[in-house]
What we know:
It is a single chain. It contains four helices and 14 strands. The chain is mainly β. The chain has one domain: hypothetical protein yedk fold. Strands 3, 4, 7, 8, 11, 12 and 13 form a seven-stranded mixed beta sheet that branches. A five-stranded antiparallel beta sheet has the order 2-1-9-10-14, with no helix packed on it. The protein has a two-stranded antiparallel ribbon with strand order 5-6.
Amino acid sequence: MCNHYRNNPELISTWREYAGFDVRQPNGEFATDVYPKRAGMIVRKEDGVVRSDVMTWGVPTMVKGATKMLEKRITNVRNLSSNFWKSMLANPAQRCLVPFSTFAEPKIGQGREEWWFSVVDQPLAAFAGIWRQSEYGPVYAFLTCEPNELVAPLHPKAMPVILDPARYDEWLSTDYAGACAMAQPFPSIRMSIVTQA
């Protein structure tokens, strides 16, 4: 489960070149080394206009604890038919792109050590995200799916849903069934394992 990624704000302007999106950096401050509950940058459509925004990573929900209900922040969404997520996923206005330059998956059984991955032909790629308003302000999460051939040997549980730039507009506008169909592993041939400092 991806709970750490990086975003290089200097690369945001490159989206104009390969995705056709003239995205500017949002007015608010956001983390470039992003962990749950930190402010991250997202891109969404509002009244047909593509805009950037700053939201907190992790959608709050209540889960049953041993003796009481506990609040949990969900960062990765896998069960797309859950009523909780379906209400967001079915509404194109609540979908977003989550820019990233690299993302991490934990090294199983090795404490805090991580594997890092990037998309080789895109300086700044994007996860398929959803967002909503909460009592803490706007929050977001992104979808996960089966891992591809590169990720699976290292992290067999899941990987984030990465979108091809040609499908950014589709993600921000398609219906519920179309959005669910896009939750597919990104081609492993277009990804690499990278070394992080």
